[in-house]
Write a structure and sequence with these properties.
Layout: H1 3-49
Amino acid sequence: MKLMELCSSLESTLAQLETARRGAQDGEAIEHRMQQWNENWASSMRHASGPTG
């Protein structure tokens, strides 16, 4: 492999890693929002059921 090919290959690998890292961060944020939504929904259901629930 020529040096230029090696550099090009490394650059694309780094770009893929960066994209994957960003995707992971987005995934964590989405997961966090879903968790909050689930908690909110559960507490509002408890309130809706009232004292008899």
